[in-house]
Records
---
Amino acid sequence: MRGLADLERMEPETAPAISPGVWDTSRRILVVGTTITLLGAFLTGWVYWRRPVEPPPLQIDYDRLEAETENLTVEQSFKLWDLLKKKLRRDPRLDEQRYVEAMLWYRRWLGVTLGVLALGIAVLLIGFFLRSHHKSVSCLLCFSWLNL
């Protein structure tokens, strides 16, 4: 037992301190900002691609219609008349109303997706600012690539 006091004391091993490494706060914010920006850009493109197109006005070539109906039998002309009566009975104001509603949908969702895109860009700028501030680099040097 006397020899125990002479032995060296061994300290318990402690886990090494975790260094900030690659994933510090500014880089995490940059990744989140990039993700939001890409999502906003994709959604904006999708909404723009699905934008409503105004329906073309109804154009009837009366000369051609007269030439084609000239040689029809009585039965064929009655069938054509029923068909035209059904097709032309449609109210053109309904098409205009649908177009107006589609444009309202388009403008609303385009505003939402542009807002998401702007939010992503703002988060990216915050990440760049924190990164430059964290490394004690001037904010102007951080944006020197903008040639301000």
---
Amino acid sequence: MDRATLKAVFLGKMTRWPDRTRIRVGFLKGQPVSRLFLRDVLKKTEHQYQNLWNQAIFTGQGLPPKWFSDKRSLVLFVKNQPGAIGFLFHKDIPPDLVSEVLVFQVEDGDEALVGQPR
């Protein structure tokens, strides 16, 4: 998945996958991987990202991310929610769940996206 698509997905500009499944974003709150992803891919701080979604909710435009405080919960959400996607360092995907989700490597780094197999 390229960075332009990632940006569109995580900023709510792309709301459905090519198969028309609604995209559900899971996001780790306050984690180093989140700050890196926000800075390098979305060009935002966590505060700016939350404000973007607060405004979208207030105006009725978009389905906000589901926020998580732990990695396992994020991966379980992605595993069990149709159309879900999340973002972790590859090394942080729980070993017992790595085969349960589709893992995408992001260009030039250790980051990984996890999503349901299609």
---
Amino acid sequence: MEHDAQRRNSVVAFLVGLVAFPCLAAVTGLLAIPFAYAAGAAAGFVVWVPAMAAPIVVLLRRGGRPRGLAYGMITSAAVCFVAAVGVLLLFSSGESPEHQLVTIASHSSTPVYYPGPSFEGHDFDDVVIFSHNSESGSEADHSFDRGDRLDVGYGSTCGSFTGETCGDLIDLQMYRRTLPFPPGYCAKRLDGPRGTILVQEDSGAWDAFTGDLVIRVEELDKQGMVDLVTELRVAGDREPTDSQLPRPSATMLRWVSDACR
């Protein structure tokens, strides 16, 4: 009888542990959020994981019913981990950003440029087309057409604690035959490297004009924009070429002249 009672107690403790772990993960996750916002997602994980593990280790060392509780929590953690990985794999496109960019370039009538797999120490991690410059990205659109905006991101700030407020440290916004700022908002115009024209907006953002394209970046200064243009290569190429980029089209030159009077 005593043995049966101990077994029942262990089973009950195990079942309680299954339910307790998600609660423990939620509470410790809330405690880790301030660290994630202050120092990044990695710091949040450094706080979150030990905070979750410590109670489980203590329960394991105590033995008896507490150990059954710990086993239930460990099983629940494993199930949650497998489920999270499964969801990520299910909703992941499976394509690297570089492969996505090459696909877009192959369906577009104009060259698509980017500064390589990394820029200023940040990895290329995101590519999104905003059809007709809409407010939300389109996963179905694979061609960069006139009126579209193509965003190429470097240095993702997204993580488990950042929600929908994350983005990229450097975001290249590319436009086709579209002026990304209203006339009169041009603060400075100068000749850029490789035959481009550089324009600084009143807001401080920089624009590089080549062919019928405009590449707009808010996060770089003048030297950073020069470095960016120097590193530009056609999507899929591993190294930039020494050749000049296409001169801005007559239409783009006229728009720049009108905007920068």
---
Amino acid sequence: MFYESRSDGACPVVGHLKFKDDPKMQEWLDHSYRKVTCQVSDEEFEAAKEAADEWVVITENSLSNQEVALAFKPRGEYPDFFKKLRLFGAEFDFQ
């Protein structure tokens, strides 16, 4: 997920590098590889850190190392919180 105010939508590989040795990551790579990118407000970004465990924050050097994205370890099902977030680039709010 990306901050709506701080990102151009470039998809980092940081999540893959962080969790590459985890069996869940390998299972995801072998059988699913489903990805979802969400665009979130500052409040949603912070709430996401509490809604699920095992994530990594991505910072941007050109923005004085501000947090710009979170990558979450693949899992079978995400908490309901994530199902209400806007897809990155979506022009419609489906909430």
